[in-house]
Design brief:
It is a single chain. The protein is of the alpha/beta class. The protein contains 14 helices and 11 strands. The strands form 2 sheets. Strands 3-2-4-7-1-8-11-10-9 form a 9-stranded mixed sheet, with helices on both faces. The protein is globular, with a radius of gyration of 20 Å.
Amino acid sequence: MADTWPLFIEKGAPNDPVFVGVGEIPSGKYPERSFIGDLTDVALRALADAKMVPHDVDTIMLIPNLHSVDAQADLIFSRMVEELGVAGHIKSSFMVHSGGSTSDNAVRAASGLIASGHARTVLVLQCERWGSADLQKMITMLSKNGIPGEWELPTGIQFNAIGALITQRYMAESGSTPEEMASICVTLRNWAQLNPNAMYKGKPLTVEQVLSSRMVADPLHAMECPMMADGAAAFVMTSEENAQKRGIKTRVRVAGSGGSVSHYSIGQEPDLAKLGWRKASDRAYEQSGWGPESADFAEVYDSYAAVTAIAIEGMRICPEGQGAKWFAAGHGNPGGSFPINTNGGLLSAGHTGVGGGTALLIEGVRQLLWRAEPERQILDCQRCIVGGSGGSYMDAQVLLLERITN
């Protein structure tokens, strides 16, 4: 049996699911903001971007938060239906969750609902309050969630340690230097300087600063670890037919989708220097009929630099073993040959929990709609590669997006 599945929806078909709007608010530490207030704000921003109002939506899909079980329960039990004033109008409100790859799977779920006729317009919402949450509680959560309690938790494994293990293995396999690894963080910070919503806008970074910051988990320095942030993001998907009826002239469609779930326990991952990216991206490329040579840029999960280097190698954006060197040569920078994480990524726009991947996804959509700020807009871009990963990098998920116009 074939390893991939064809797309059953042709480009321009009436039930082809398309992105028509995105919304985002600044990431960082904003104790004066509220969880539900941020969700409502970002929902209305995304709808306004799509030239829609809440009653144009028939389905609400929530991406969960990690800062509060109580806050998440409100979302599960449809609070946003009332907040947006659409009680009795909305057909369904529910949650999708796979950690850092949730946005990829939310797109698939929304696409399936639209393609099958179960939904016409889906509003996807995410908000996180990591930056303002109780720090000790968040440390405890990140030291336990997704880590096997029987075998790995007693050894002291937590997420910075997992990032360090992956980084050590990648550096050993690729021969990458600390300076080359640090250059990935600098590239992301360069993009963050152009993003008004980025946590670290206005705070430039150099390789020397990265390597002189305190050691957290060898070989990771503090500046190579993501900072927890408050933030919110949203996107709107509808059918091609509905977009045409509403006179929406520019849309973004999913041309290909691929994934690979490789493990739960990091100790069961057979190759920390590869992870699941090659299999996931090859599945997406086969489905779309185009590959990295046809893309203009990529938005790739980057909670640690090595994860991004491994991903772009697996996606065939650069040769195997050359990811960190590719970044050090400036290819991913503003003005480089292949821009990467044009919002600054998790490492410089801010790590908004499960929403880190969502922020990257909507940045890809924003760029393809040509709605980024002029100084960071990729001129005439048509195609984008989006990559997400959840848990202890237990999966690799790839979406291939393309711009369509009337």
